[in-house]
Amino acid sequence: MSDKKFQEAAASSQSTPAVSDDQVVRSRAMSPFGELDRMFDSLFARDWMLPHRLERLTGLKPTMPRVDILDKDAEVILRAEIPGIEPQDVDVSVTDRTVTIKGESHRESRKEEGDYYRCEISQGSVMRTVDLPCDIDADKAEATFKNGILEVTLPKLKEAHRRKLHIRA
């Protein structure tokens, strides 16, 4: 193949259609396989073989608890799934636009007789910082913990008034 034909082929294979960031975000949000893609990305991160990233393979890195965020008119409700951690071992800190959840589970230390056939229960820590959809009053925030679910009620600084808009054709 001549150099000119090779350069033209290389140039045509490198050109990609322009896609805006908005289109990328919309396509990810509508993808039913988004969570699966995120899991594969975290499993096969580019630096997964580096020695200082051993915590990625050994589980020493804190896990991120799953959260639900409900935006109501007067408040924001955050629910976090934190099984196996006692309420006194959970730390919640709040700013005007973020909530940080930290916790650590402690394994009972007891002498076991016999060999383990399976050992899946472990101790570990969780940590997650979540951005909120609006400014909240951090001084009036409240938290409850029941059956492994942390619920944080965050009053809004300015109550949102929703109204239905009539769409004209």
Mean pLDDT: 75
Q: Care to count the β-strands?
A: 7
Low-confidence stretches: 13-17, 24-28, 50-58
Strand composition percent: 25-35%
Shape: flat
Briefly note the structural class of the backbone.
Answer: alpha+beta
Order of SSEs, N→C? HHHHEEEEEEE
If you compute it from the alpha carbons, what radius of gyration comes out, rounded to the nearest whole angstrom?
A: 24 Å
Largest sheet: 4 strands, antiparallel
Distance between the termini: 59 Å
The percentage helix is 10-25%
Strand order of the largest sheet: 1-2-7-6
Quickly count the helices: 4
Helices and strands in order, then pairings?
Layout (H helix, E strand, L loop, with lengths): L2 H12 L6 H10 L3 H10 L10 H5 L8 E5 L3 E7 L8 E5 L3 E7 L20 E7 L10 E5 L2 E7 L14
Short description:
Helix content is 22%, strand content 25%. With 169 residues, the chain is an alpha+beta fold. A hairpin with a 3-residue loop joins strand 3 and strand 4 (98-104).
Report on this model:
- This protein has 169 residues and is an alpha+beta fold.
- It contains 4 helices and 7 strands, in the order ααααβββββββ.
- The longest helix has 12 residues, at 3-14.
- It starts with a helix and ends in a 14-residue tail after the last strand.
Keyphrases for this structure?
4-stranded antiparallel β-sheet, 169 residues, 4 helices, alpha+beta, 3-stranded antiparallel β-sheet, flat, 7 strands
